[in-house]
Amino acid sequence: MCTAGITESGEWIRIYPVPFRTLEEYNKFKKYTWIKAQISRDSRDPRPESHKINISTIEILEHVPTNKDWGRRRHFILQNSKVYTSLSYVINAARENKMSLCTFKPTKFLDIIIEKNPKPEPSKEEEAAFNNANKSLFDDETCKVAFTGMPYIPYKFKIKFEDDKGVVSSMSIIDWEIPQLYLNCKFRDGEEIAVQKVKDKLINFTKNNDLHLFLGTMKQMHIRRSKNPYTIIGLFFPPFTKTYQPSLFEAGLM
Fold it and tell me: How much is the pTM?
């Protein structure tokens, strides 16, 4: 998978590929964990934050917990790193190849959209071909399990929001935790209930948490300077603090 994070100085970084499911247990790291590893600039990827990582050098340092209202996580992500509120700014920065990852705070959340995946489920032959084509990306001595792609998800999950200039956008969520939530719920409760539970979870984040979006550009869309090359690669949802509670107008999704 493609993994994004921030450095101690608050700069975004992308490391790829990380064969997370095939790593030895001692090399697996959770979200919000400081790691140390050898990295080098990825010459095949023009995006400024993109780097290759030597998987065998990963050293897990510290997991940052959620205690004290996510205080330390807030510090590293919202205070030590820049938070953007203008879509036109981050899109223009991507077109100028100055940025491809950022933390974004919408002014208003408008809707949660769940659409049918326009791509059909791949056949067993197509899946095998995909796995073989990508196998070389994960040739590493620490990989003890054969490479397989993520399971097919028949839906696209999107968040519709407005920025500080009144610009409205709907962006797909590609963070693996949301599709995994769908798969877990589908296994327990069936497809229809699973879809509703994912939607309820996302609505809850927009209403009851200080939701920020981690945005990242797709490589080919970034190269082509697409109208909007960004997707939502992650959700940052700490609780509201006593110093900031949203009005009903700001929360949206009534």
Answer: 0.84
